[in-house]
Amino acid sequence: MKHLLIPLTLILLSACASAPKETDQSAAAQKPVATQGGGYLAGDGPGADAPANLDSLPDAVPKAEPLHRYANRPYSALGKTYTPLAAPGNYRERGSASWYGRKFHGQRTSIGETYDMYGMTAAHPTLPVPSYARVTNLANGKSVVVRVNDRGPFLHDRIMDLSYAAAWKLGYVNQGSAEVEVESLSVDGNAPVATAVAPAPVETVAATTVMPVMASDRTGKVYLQLGAFREKQGAESFLAKMRAELGDSGKDIVLQQKKGLTRVHIGPYASADEARRTANILAARLGFKPFVSLH
22-185 with 215-294: one CATH topology? Predict the structure, then answer.
């Protein structure tokens, strides 16, 4: 996911006015209900057809799988460069985890699979994809095993985005996020990347830099660049997350191929000055500052 997580983005939800007791969620487990908040995006939450008794959903079962050919290369998102781990195992970290639900349900993850909010999956910036991880909620000791099949999250120092079902089993869907421990699980016979490919160099651009534009690329339209990706799948996953986050902006969020990268742009704007003013507004909303690009 997609995350790209980059979860694949985004504004921290306000927690519910009073979090339900752990026993309350268990009592309601026969039929999950929509919460006041949910996930990391405003308006995210469970679908209307949530399966009954998510507590009985089995964990993901680790098995040896070939790593995705492209989604394990170094990549950049939101001004940062990420280098995925070469193999599962030998990773354990504590930090904040959120979850993503109906806003991304049915969309493609970074490895091209369809995201299922009721599956036991997760998005991580650097764990190999696909691979498996044990996630433990440090507040209540609950633990699940998930299959990592998406990239993200990329904002606010979260270390993982889990599916709605996984977050439900960990007991934090109403809070939106929780402090967790993530442990990568190795499996005997884990295969390396399907085709050995030397990591491609990743282009990074400082957030305050105005992109140079080739004369042949100019059409007189002014956009803001939100991200640049060497692999189109990563760009498409991030595009979906930005559309979910900024869908109320009244601007188009599109992909553009330029200089060997797939770029995620929002616009057009009437002038570069308007675009820069908007970039300052978006910086407070997104946690990073887009920069001006001319089409």
Answer: no
Residue range 81-140, pLDDT digits in tens: 889 998 898 899 989 999 987 778 888 888 889 889 899 999 999 999 999 999 999 999
The identity of residue 225, as a single letter, is Q
Nearest to 239 by CA among 220, 258, 249, 252: 252
Q: What is the rounded CA–CA span in Å between residue 89 and residue 104?
A: 28
**β-strand 158-163 against 92-100: which pairing, if any?**
parallel
Q: Answer whether 88's CB lies under 8 Å from 184's CB.
A: yes
For 138-156, write each residue's pLDDT tens digit: 999 999 999 999 998 887 7
Q: What is the largest CA-CA distance in the chain?
A: 63
Q: Are 67 and 194 in contact, with CB atoms under 8 Å apart? A: yes
Write a three-state SS string for 14-42.
CCCCCCCCHHHHHHCCCCCCCCCCCCCCC
* Alpha-carbon 295 to chain mean position: 27
Q: Which fold has domain 22-185?
A: Barwin-like endoglucanases (2.40.40)
What the block records as the tokens of 213 is: 């534009």
- The pTM is what? 0.55
> What's the topology of domain 215-294?
Alpha-Beta Plaits (3.30.70)
* Spatial distance between the Cα atoms of 201 and 216, rounded to a whole number of angstroms: 24
pLDDT surpassing 70 at residue 244: yes
Strands 131-137 and 92-100: unpaired
